[in-house]
TrEMBL record:
Enzyme class name: translocase
Reactions catalysed, as given in the entry: a quinone + NADH + 5 H(+)(in) = a quinol + NAD(+) + 4 H(+)(out)
Organism: Streptomyces gougerotii
Name of this chain's protein: NADH-quinone oxidoreductase subunit I
A single BP term in Gene Ontology: aerobic respiration
Subcellular location as annotated: Cell membrane
Disordered, as annotated region: 188-232
Family in the record: Belongs to the complex I 23 kDa subunit family.
Keywords of this entry: 4Fe-4S, Cell membrane, Iron, Iron-sulfur, Membrane, Metal-binding, NAD, Quinone, Repeat, Translocase, Ubiquinone
Membrane keyword on record: yes
Gene: nuoI1
UniProt entry tagged with the keyword Nuclease: no
Length: 232
């Protein structure tokens, strides 16, 4: 075949070949998602909104170490740790996360922060509806990220389970709040000494006061889905 004939064939085939993808797609099944009416189920380990988890008695797992913030490549996490006291205890150990923020205008949902967390305090849920209309609303605070309360939990701050230490929490020996556990007043937040008509819990070592149970108001304040420990 001459060179001129080759060029003539290519000149005819190229436009037809260009429509090949179009013709193939015309006969394929449609993949239209009916969102938001029929949201698609995500994969089990999908990286969605973060969650700050609790121990089984309601104390917080976060120890305010900032490792998650240092691991974040997008500088999306801000943490301020503080010391627990016997009168106001948020986690079993020495420190807790007093301020915790994640900026979802920056976060790329890579999951490096949850890998860095030494206590499994930080995990990710399957929730992906994170869009909002202002940058300020995309900064999620600790109140929004903290997991809700499940049965057997009392909202923090409250005393450590009597007869246990921090290590026992990580060994799984504490499975629920001790009878008589009540929520302490959050002095650092300026809360009054009596919360929801319940007495302030005694300091560690002192006899436990009656009237256990988590306050409904405290439960309602947590935006995360109760009992859901996010995917890691
Ligand atoms: S998922 Fe990635 S980008 Fe988002 S806060 Fe964690 S480390 Fe930072
Ligand atoms: S979430 Fe984990 S890594 Fe981040 S400050 Fe708390 S304990 Fe440390």
């Amino acid at each position: 075949m001459t060179e001129g004939a080759n060029q003539s064939d290519q000149g005819f085939q190229n436009p037809v070949a260009g429509f090949g993808v179009t013709f193939k797609a015309m006969f394929k099944k449609r993949l239209t998602e009916q969102y938001p009416e029929q949201p698609k189920t995500t994969a089990p380990r999908f990286h969605g909104r973060h969650q700050l988890n609790r121990h089984p008695d309601g104390l917080e797992k976060c120890v305010g170490c900032e490792l998650c913030a240092w691991a974040c490549p997008a500088d999306a996490i801000y943490v301020e740790g503080a010391d627990n006291t016997d009168e106001e205890r948020y986690s079993p150990g020495e420190r807790y996360g007093r301020v915790y923020q994640i900026n979802y205008a920056r976060c790329i949902l890579c999951g490096l922060c949850i890998e860095a967390c030494p206590t499994r305090a930080l995990t990710m849920t399957n929730e992906f509806e994170l869009a909002d209309s202002t940058r300020k609303d995309l900064i999620y605070t600790k109140d929004q990220l903290l997991a809700g309360l499940t049965e057997g939990m009392v909202d923090s701050p409250h005393a450590i389970h009597p007869g246990t230490d921090e290590q026992d929490y990580y060994r799984g020996l504490v499975t629920e709040a001790a009878p008589g556990t009540v929520r302490q007043a959050a002095v650092s937040k300026g809360e009054p000494a009596v919360v929801d008509s319940e007495p302030v819990a005694p300091a560690e070592g002192a006899p436990a006061a009656p009237a256990p149970a988590a306050s409904p108001a405290a439960s309602a304040g947590s935006a995360a889905k109760p009992g859901q420990e996010g995917q890691g």
